[in-house]
Specification:
heterodimer, A: alpha/beta, two-stranded antiparallel ribbon, 8 strands, 19% strand, B: alpha/beta, three-stranded parallel β-sheet, 5 helices, globular
């Protein structure tokens, strides 16, 4: 039986800013200064119906493919190219900020290649882009995210001519 | 931290002309980073796209998330920065009492285990392989050529 149920929890959504503040306080650290971007975010409308979109998966759960160099867990800003037809049994994880047990049993819980392929076959989306991208998102420095991860990823996704980027943080 | 990184990345991709839909299981972090289109999936960390070995549930969740994200279409529907909450929940609410400490072991009734959350310690600059076989395979390939599908690594 799955642990995923339909319907909303009666409790409010988990608040990780508060939980992290509390954890850091108990460990004697100063509060982390979370990025706040209160301006109106950049917005690009979709050019096609969802059923025609070429969709690229980008996941931050530290997924790599067997044979690739794994991620370091300390501010590693590199990216792994994962061909979208990779068997999920070839996927591995390297991360520090979540329990990887379930992701290692079934990588689709953080890197949903299988359901994405199924939705393409069912016509819900158009196609799955040939490449998916993975990185280890637990990077403390927003400067390094914006200066190191963003340019590489943007260049790749523009070259891949995708219509929709599906982002899956962990 | 992952959610913050992804939120910021989404903003930059959109600025470059790439439409995004971001899943999130960390509402407050995503709201602060303020990416253009987000879909809230209120499950324990490590399950942003569903529960393990649940093909049907994962597929339905992703279909719902894509539909919800695609539906954020200002000015008529929503505005940039909208976060839509999907109607999914974990099998119990116990994890919400201390969301950073959820582990498979604690879920299955074992010891509560050490926190899987971000304790800032134990992080490594070196690759952390899931298995020794992965490390051996990567080393074998890297001896011939640097990992060609690893972008942004320092040159050897």
């Amino acid at each position: 039986m799955s642990e995923l149920l339909a319907g909303r929890s009666p409790l409010s959504p988990a608040d990780y800013i508060e939980a992290t503040r509390s954890l850091y306080s108990s460990l004697g650290y100063d509060p982390y200064r979370w990025a706040e971007r209160p301006d109106t975010p950049p917005f690009t409308p979709f050019a096609k119906p969802l059923s025609d979109c070429k969709v690229a998966l980008v996941g931050s759960g530290g997924v790599y493919r067997a044979g690739q160099i794994a991620f370091g867990t300390r501010d590693d800003t590199s990216i792994r190219v994962i061909p979208s037809d990779t068997q999920v049994t070839e996927l591995r994880t390297a991360h520090f900020a979540y329990d990887q047990h379930d992701a290692r049993r079934d990588p689709n819980v953080v890197f949903p290649l299988t359901p994405l392929a199924e939705l393409s076959a069912a016509g819900v989306i158009g196609t799955v882009a040939a490449n998916a991208y993975a990185f280890m998102g637990g990077i403390y420095s927003t400067r390094r995210v914006e200066q190191e991860v963003v340019p590489l990823l943007t260049e790749q996704l523009l070259a891949d001519e995708v219509d929709l980027v599906l982002l899956v943080p962990v | 931290m992952c959610h913050q990184s992804v939120g910021l990345i989404a903003r930059h991709l959109e600025a470059a002309g790439l439409p995004t839909i971001g899943l999130t299981s960390a509402l407050s972090i995503t709201a602060a980073a303020n990416p253009p289109r987000s879909v809230l999936i209120d499950l324990p960390l490590g399950h942003t796209s569903g529960a393990p070995d649940d093909r049907v549930g994962q597929r339905q969740l992703l279909a719902d998330a894509l539909a919800a994200g695609y539906g954020i279409a200002p000015p008529s529907q929503g505005s940039p920065g909208t976060i839509v909450e999907l109607a999914y929940r974990w099998i119990d609410d116990d994890w919400k009492a201390n969301p950073l400490s959820w582990t498979r072991a604690s879920q299955d009734g074992g010891s509560s285990g050490t926190s899987a959350g971000d304790t800032r310690t134990g992080r490594s600059l070196e690759p952390v392989y899931q298995t020794a076989d992965d490390e051996a395979l990567a080393a074998k390939r890297s001896s011939d050529e640097h990992c060609l599908t690893c972008l942004g690594l320092p040159a050897v």
